[in-house]
Amino acid sequence: VALPIKSLLIKYKELITYGIFGVLTTVVNFATFKLSDVILGQKLYLVSNIIAWVVCVIFAYVTNKLWVFESKSLKPDVVMKELLSFFAARGFSFIIEEGGLFLLVDIVGFSDYTLQLFGFSISGTMISKMVVGVVVVIINYFFSKLVIFRKDKQDKT
Predict the structure, then answer these.
(1) Short-list 73, 72, 124, CA closest to 103
(2) What H or E segment, with its residue span, contains residue 98?
(3) Residues 60 and 141: beta-carbon distance below 8 Å
């Protein structure tokens, strides 16, 4: 029984580590968003989302580079190319996130709702962020896997 589990872990290591660091990135994103939301006020939720995006993209780049896609090269040209393509891809998904948040919060009106869950109150804005976040995570994985940290086109030194 242990042997198939070990081979599955090896086979899906990249997806598993992406999931783990994806959860951690999401925690960083949501915590930063919530803190900014408290400090700036709920009306500035899109500004709070920008702040959260910057913090979590830096965190995500480092974790994706080193532990998920294991891009070990520290050559300036490789790092610069990765950084630029990572931020460009995340910028694209950020536009989708901002647009999705605006749609759900301002157009659909999710900000008018609150969910009570296990004694916690979750705002409609936060629910909207969670819904849009699922789409963004999927987009980010494919950009990272297929474009930014592609093994066949990168210098492995």
Answers:
(1) 124
(2) helix 76-102
(3) no
Q: DSSP class of residue 13?
A: H
- Is residue 152 within 8 Å of 71, Cβ to Cβ? no
> Is residue 133 within 8 Å of residue 56, measured between CB atoms?
no
Q: Do residues 48 and 147 make contact, with C-beta atoms less than 8 angstroms apart?
A: no
Decide: helix, strand or coil at residue 154. coil
pTM: predicted TM-score of the whole model, two decimal places: 0.76
Residue type at 21 in one-letter notation = F
> DSSP letters of 31-84?
HHHHHHHHHH-GGGHHHHHHHHHHHHHHHHHHHIIIIIS------HHHHHHHHH
pLDDT tens per residue across span 64-121: 999 988 888 899 999 999 999 999 989 999 999 999 999 999 999 998 999 998 988 9
